[in-house]
């Protein structure tokens, strides 16, 4: 067992004359710990890739699905939003279970359910069946957000936690872009049936699921439920020395319920993470899901090719945030992009603007929106402590998907009834609201140990 920390928080050293029996076990070498962190990061970002994959193909395939299943505008919006509605359910449910029964069991159960849903898409013949299957898939992936992100944050070294968590968003955008490109190629050049294209999500899901077997439980979760010996043994094997010391900050009181998210200690974190995430993803999902339609209405020619290019720009934005987050900090990368994105959408809404300026403004929106969105996987895991981290991430996930699902459902209706310029102005207003709330509530957690970042969850921003 690892020695108890001294009052100063530093582990006492073993005297030189101590016998081997009296000394602490030798911790795993740094190379092994680095390999474990790299593998864990890949496995969790694989879940994000799958989420992006199932959402990225829908916009391209929607015309074919609409013609085949004879969809109304309402059904079109519902199917586009079905996975997002599922995430709304699965995030809180998965987070609560992850806090109560552990990260490890849920880490494989959710992807197994998702795999079955992926295969079931091949056999749907009615709008209701497609909606139901993708709803279940969304529930599974929502649970994965609330399980995987806390698990990675609880193992990650403080000095690279921002990078590791931002990589999750790279996984999402990579999956979205891969599915978008694949669906475009198979639809335009090979006329492959949309059932088969949707079912292709089973391939990356099976790969990631098999990799996840054998993943250890989170030592911080074990500590939070009083299983101290197990926590210390796993920490010695998989965590760096600084994180092993910080492990002692975990409260061994067990999991909390959702009502505690609005207790004074956690209220600020709950409001901030929810609003931050909602205002980032609502405009993106609304515009990104129907990018071909939006770009065509803006007079930019081949909407499918343009949508593919813009989502590639978004991936570059995430890469920029990943490279800078542990150097510049969270606030500098999380707040200004909201206002830049809003300005870009206002330009898009200007009637009669030359196509070149519209294209540049759309490019700016996708890039800077992605910079800020990359922090959506980081902030919730940092500001909520272990005993409520899964529930906090799950709740923030759910609220974000309310906005994303609403935006995806309402965008085609708004463009039909209000027109493109007013719809873009509404999206710009959402970005401004996100920037204001983030300026008031966002903390700076760069370089802090996870216990330090989450303990004063209600402190004012630096």
TrEMBL record:
Transmembrane ranges, per UniProt, are: 40-65, 77-98, 105-125, 131-149, 170-188, 194-213, 269-291, 303-325, 337-368, 388-411, 423-442
Q: Where is the composition biased (Low complexity)?
A: 15-26
Is Transmembrane a UniProt keyword of this protein?
A: yes
Would the keyword Amino-acid biosynthesis turn up in this protein's UniProt record? no
Which Pfam family is an annotated match for this chain, by its short name? Answer: Sugar_tr
Source domain of life:
Bacteria
Matching entries from InterPro entries are given as: MFS_dom, MFS_sugar_transport-like, MFS_Sugar_Transporters, MFS_trans_sf
Q: Which UniProt keywords apply?
A: Membrane, Transmembrane, Transmembrane helix
Query: Where does the record place it?
Result: Membrane
* Membrane topology per record: Multi-pass membrane protein
Which positions fall inside the Major facilitator superfamily (MFS) profile domain? Answer: 40-446
For the region Disordered, what residue ranges are annotated?
1-26
Recorded family membership: Belongs to the major facilitator superfamily. Sugar transporter (TC 2.A.1.1) family.
* Protein's name according to its UniProt entry: MFS transporter
Naturally occurring in which organism (per UniProt):
Novosphingobium pituita
């Amino acid at each position: 067992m690892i020695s108890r920390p001294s009052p100063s928080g530093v582990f006492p050293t073993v005297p030189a004359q101590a016998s081997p029996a009296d000394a602490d076990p030798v911790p795993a070498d740094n190379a092994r710990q680095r390999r474990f962190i790299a593998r864990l990061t890949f496995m969790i970002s694989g879940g994000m890739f799958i989420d992006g994959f199932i959402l990225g193909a829908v916009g391209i395939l929607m015309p074919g699905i609409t013609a085949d299943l004879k969809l109304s505008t309402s059904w079109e919006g519902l199917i586009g939003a079905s996975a997002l509605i599922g995430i709304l359910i699965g995030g809180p449910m998965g987070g609560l279970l992850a806090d109560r029964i552990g990260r490890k069991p849920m880490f494989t159960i959710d992807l197994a359910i998702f795999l079955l849903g992926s295969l079931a898409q091949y056999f749907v013949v009615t709008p209701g069946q497609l909606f139901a299957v993708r709803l279940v898939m969304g529930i599974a992936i929502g649970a994965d957000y609330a399980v995987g992100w806390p698990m990675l944050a609880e193992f990650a070294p403080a000095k690279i936690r921002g990078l590791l968590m931002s990589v999750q968003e790279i996984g999402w955008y990579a999956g979205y872009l891969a599915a978008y490109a694949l669906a475009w190629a198979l639809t335009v050049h090979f006329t492959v049936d949309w059932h088969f294209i949707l079912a292709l999500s089973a391939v990356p899901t099976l790969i990631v699921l098999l990799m996840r077997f054998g993943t250890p439980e989170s030592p911080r979760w074990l500590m939070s439920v009083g299983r101290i010996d197990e926590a210390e043994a796993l920490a010695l094997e998989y965590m760096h020395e600084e994180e092993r010391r910080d492990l002692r900050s975990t409260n061994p009181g067990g999991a909390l319920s959702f009502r505690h998210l609005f207790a004074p200690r956690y209220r600020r974190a709950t409001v901030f993470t929810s609003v931050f995430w909602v205002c980032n993803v609502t405009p993106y999902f609304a515009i990104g899901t129907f990018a071909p339609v939006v770009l065509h209405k803006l007079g930019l020619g081949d909407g499918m090719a343009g949508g593919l290019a813009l989502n590639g720009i978004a991936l570059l934005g995430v890469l920029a945030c990943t490279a800078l987050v542990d150097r510049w900090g969270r606030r500098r990368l999380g707040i200004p992009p909201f206002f830049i994105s809003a300005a870009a959408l206002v330009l898009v809404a200007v009637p009669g603007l030359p196509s070149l300026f519209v294209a540049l403004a759309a490019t700016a929106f996708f890039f800077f929106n992605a910079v800020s969105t990359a922090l959506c996987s980081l902030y919730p895991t940092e500001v909520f402590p272990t005993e409520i981290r899964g529930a906090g991430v799950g709740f923030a996930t759910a609220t974000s998907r309310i906005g994303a699902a609403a935006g995806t459902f309402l965008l085609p209706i708004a463009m039909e009834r209000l027109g493109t310029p007013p719809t873009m102005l509404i999206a710009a207003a959402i970005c401004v609201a996100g920037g204001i709330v983030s300026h008031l509530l966002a903390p700076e957690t760069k370089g802090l140990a996870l216990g330090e970042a989450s303990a004063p969850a209600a402190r004012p921003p630096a």
